[in-house]
């Protein structure tokens, strides 16, 4: 469980990129199942961390991705919420994971009149 | 005049604040990655290979490093993270190499900045291999690049051969899987093939090794691998490489 420090990292990065906004209204994150971060825990703690760090009460929008896998046996590309089952076409475990570890800060929305 | 209904009183509705959306499209852990890059440059300047050693508590990280320290002596240096105490650093130091303890004060992982702050305390003039023993945890350390060349995960035989797919985020990023406590295998229902096959299903390029720190089984191979193994391609780079892989076109002439 390290989602509080993850929430702090999000706010630190926003501050580094944009200066300190007095009122942050929304933060959008893209999060994959292999990111090692619990979306629910992050969603739960983000408002509290943001408030205590003086960023107001932003909404956290999470765009959740799937794990994208290419089967090395039959060539099928498939998508799973977790990489814990084999190829749905040929049941092979020989595969290459093409995506699913995404963890990106997509955008920050600031309240214009309060923005410094 | 009221904007809401046209009456002559003041509006009771507050206008919605104007907002401005700014696209950032940055890795959330960009600041950690900047520190990791700085660590990588430090390792390159000092000609040191760095390993990030990750496992559950009790998988044998420190025992493995003690065995490695007895073999490599001052060619090895260790940075070790624990919530409290310097017990691990003392154990490793007693086996003949430098060891620096980071007490994380209940934090569940090391990040690149915490490693960066202690790097200057090391005398790296004779060191070839720097192992960063992470806090015992298979979850949080997965997210943090420390600037290492090799991300090594230990799985000990008593933990069970079905553990890999239960922790896919770490096992999909690992560059080396080391099965430890192999001397206990005769007493356990642990199938090393299963653990290795499942790890390869998440990460076909993973190097798999089997060791016992107690008997010395597999230590020679592990030592050679850690000193000169292939440099870790971070998962993102791997994904990009897989996407961009094109058949080579040979030019005539």
Quick structural summary:
The complex is a heterodimer of chains A (about 120) and B (about 250). With about 120 residues, chain A is of the alpha+beta class. Chain A has helices at about 5-20, 40-50; strands spanning about 25-30, 60-65, 65-70, 75-80, 95-100, 105-110.
Strands, helices and their partners?
The complex is a heterodimer of chains A (116) and B (253).
Chain A: H1 3-18, E1 24-31, H2 39-52, E2 59-64, E3 67-71, E4 77-80, E5 95-99, E6 103-111
Parallel strand pairs in A: 1-2
Antiparallel strand pairs in A: 1-6, 3-4, 3-5
Helix pairs in contact in A: 1-2
Chain B: E1 19-27, H1 30-45, E2 49-54, H2 61-72, E3 76-82, H3 87-93, E4 98-103, H4 112-119, E5 129-133, E6 150-156, H5 168-171, E7 176-180, H6 192-202, E8 207-210, H7 219-228, H8 235-244
Parallel strand pairs in B: 2-5, 2-6, 3-4, 3-5, 6-7, 7-8
Helix pairs in contact in B: 1-4, 2-3
Which stretches of chain A of 5+ consecutive residues score pLDDT under 50?
none
* Biggest sheet character of chain B: 7 strands, parallel
Assembly annotation: heterodimer
CATH topology of the largest domain in chain A: hypothetical protein PF0899 fold
Which structural class do you get from the secondary structure elements of chain A? Answer: alpha+beta
Give the name of the CATH superfamily of chain B: P-loop containing nucleotide triphosphate hydrolases
Q: Termini separation of chain B (Å)?
A: 81 Å
* Order of neighbouring strands in the sheet with most strands of chain A: 2-1-6
The radius of gyration of chain A is 18 Å
Radius of gyration from the alpha-carbon trace of chain B, in angstroms: 24 Å
């Amino acid at each position: 469980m390290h989602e509080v420090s993850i929430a702090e990292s999000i706010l630190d990065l926003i501050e580094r990129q944009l200066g300190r906004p007095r009122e942050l209204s929304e933060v959008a994150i893209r999060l994959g199942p292999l990111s090692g971060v619990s979306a629910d825990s992050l969603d739960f703690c983000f408002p509290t961390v943001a408030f205590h760090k003086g960023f107001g009460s932003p909404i956290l929008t999470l765009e959740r991705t799937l794990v994208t896998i290419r089967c090395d046996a039959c060539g099928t590309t498939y998508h799973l919420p977790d990489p814990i089952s084999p190829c749905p076409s040929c049941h092979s475990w020989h595969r290459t994971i093409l995506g699913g570890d995404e963890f990106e800060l997509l955008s920050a929305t600031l309240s214009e009149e309060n923005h410094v | 005049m009221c904007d809401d209904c046209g009456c002559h009183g003041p509006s009771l509705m507050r206008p919605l604040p104007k907002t401005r959306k700014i696209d950032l499209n940055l890795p959330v852990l960009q600041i950690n990655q900047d520190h990791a890059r700085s660590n990588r440059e430090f390792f390159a300047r000092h000609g040191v290979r760095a390993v990030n050693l990750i496992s559950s508590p009790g998988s044998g990280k420190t025992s493995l490093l003690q065995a490695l320290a007895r073999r490599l002596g001052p060619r090895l240096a260790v940075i070790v993270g624990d919530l409290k105490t310097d017990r691990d650093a003392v154990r490793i130091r007693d086996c003949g190499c430098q060891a620096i303890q980071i007490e994380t004060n209940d934090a569940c992982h090391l990040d690149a900045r915490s490693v960066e702050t202690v790097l200057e305390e090391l005398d790296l003039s004779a060191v070839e291999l720097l192992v960063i023993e992470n806090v015992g945890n298979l979850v949080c350390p997965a997210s943090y690049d420390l600037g290492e060349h090799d991300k090594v995960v230990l799985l000990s035989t008593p933990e069970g051969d079905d553990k890999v797919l239960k922790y896919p985020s770490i096992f999909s990023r690992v560059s080396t899987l080391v099965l430890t406590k192999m001397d206990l295998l005769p007493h356990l229902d642990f199938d090393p093939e299963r653990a290795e096959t499942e790890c390869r299903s998440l990460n076909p390029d993973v190097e798999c090794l089997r060791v016992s720190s107690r008997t010395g089984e597999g230590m020679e191979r592990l030592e050679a691998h850690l000193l000169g193994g292939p440099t870790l391609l971070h998962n993102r780079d791997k994904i990009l490489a897989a996407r961009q892989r094109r058949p080579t076109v040979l030019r005539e002439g």
